[in-house]
Amino acid sequence: MGETVRRRTRNATFAAVAATAAIALTATGAQAAVPTNTTALQDAVTSDGIMAHLEELQAIADANGGTRASGTPGYGASIDYIESVLDAAGYITTRQDFRFNSFTELSEPEMDRVSPDTEVYVPFVDFVTAEYSGSGDVTAPLEAVDLVLPPGPTASSSNSGCEAADFDGFTSGNIALVQRGTCDFSVKAHNAAVAGASGVIIFNEGQEGRQETLNATLGDAFSDDIPVVGTSFAIGDELASLLAAGEVVMHLKTETLIELDVPTQNLIAQTPTGRTDRVVMAGAHLDSVSAGAGINDNGSGSAAILETALQMAKLGIQPRNAVRFAWWGAEEAGLLGSQYYVDSLPKKEANNIELYLNFDMVGSPNYANFVYDGDGDAFGIKGPSGSDDIEHLFSDFFESIGEESEPTEFDGRSDYDAFITAGIPAGGLFTGAEGAKTADQVADYGGLAEFGGKPVSYDPCYHQACDSLDPVGDGADAALYDALNAAYGGALEYQGTISNVNQEGLGDMADAIAHAVLTYAMSTSSVNGTAKASPKAAEKVGDHLGAHLFR
């Protein structure tokens, strides 16, 4: 499992109550060959227990500059907390060191239209600073670069900014307006910088699925020190129309910090019993973005698997297959911790991993029950053989408790990516991020599709300071959160304060997580074809690098 700094073993907790925790192999276990009664573990893994861990993570962030981002003291304290309770519960814990290039926004970015008709755009809503953007405070005329408007019939019809020749005649000092399509955002931004642009605005391309505000990454190799932001197709199209009528002057401001070779860690915890040639893994990224505490993203997934591990120990469950829990670092920088872990595995150890379960955001305040599309029938990208069984286990579970669920794409946005690329069957759960909730989903899960005439996302505080146990106190729209809490009958309230976690959805997710982990801990015979990746799953077919788009 790569370079480590410490390793600890505690077997006492498991052994002390093992005799009282025989698992009844009589109830349903989805498609697993040996049905497993998971009711006791489901009952033990509660939303209250998970929320208690989130309190600890919030306190850690509050004591460390408001963040738990990888490479910060808040992240280190988060690992210390999780490791300490796992050690006490009898797990074998291992830290895995690695280094990464970190990106931090030091202040809130700004994007304004100075003329014509002043317009102040809202950060994180109308525009987002591209990850690894440089710093700058510039006011200059806007200049369009090889735009395709109206957009072409298919994605990546636009080649805007992809070639140096696109900037022939570009006026040095202007702010470049470029359109998504064809090439990586870093290529567009670098070509603009070489041409003398003082800043870059990249807007979405315009086809269905390519209209929202771009949350882009330039990659940690980008080194041009100019502000680069992403915006929506609607805003980009409006700016282009204004340019056609005359001069448009824009103001951009970003203040960023890029630090090279920052040390950070993954934390791995394994049961002291169970077959180590049939390892079942469950993972969640532990790091937040630099802007805040990351209580839903991804304190929720981290706390959910932690509580699952602790309750397994408390019940004295001795799995037939070793269960390995993982808390990943530097996910927000591009899935770096999980990729480092998989890359560092000797071939034999990789082959011993039967499957990987991923839990990234399982408490979204305006949630939906998303299950990763392991068989590919919804989105055309299936996981390695066996991923279909994991999908069906989760969807069957939700059906069994009378809840709806729906597939979500293996699009490369979370830590399952390294595993499916390596041919390891994978699956997991997700409750939604910046996407807008639909009216049909409101009918299925409750919540809001619209508020104040505007669409409402699954997590209105995604990647913001208000992703906390007190979102309104940390800048969220108070009226919106009051309405969300009312729509869910108070399910967002925790200890008298509206939080960014929906405990109704979290409770169902907790049950599903406990069910899946224990089912596969007892038998993986239904997950066949380990280490046989489908061609599409082994390719980088998506446009995402972690939470960010890279092209």
TrEMBL record:
InterPro entries: M28_fam, M28_SGAP-like, PA_dom_sf, PA_domain, Peptidase_M28
Residue span(s) of domain Peptidase M28: 266-476
Signal peptide feature range: 1-32
GO molecular function, one term: metalloexopeptidase activity
Family of the protein in this entry: Belongs to the peptidase M28 family. M28A subfamily.
Alphabetized Pfam families for the sequence: PA, Peptidase_M28
Superkingdom of the source species: Bacteria
Organism ancestry: Bacteria, Bacillati, Actinomycetota, Actinomycetes, Micrococcales
Protein name: M20/M25/M40 family metallo-hydrolase
GO biological process: one example: proteolysis
Keywords for the protein's UniProt record, in alphabetical order: Aminopeptidase, Hydrolase, Metal-binding, Protease, Signal, Zinc
The PA domain, residue ranges: 147-239
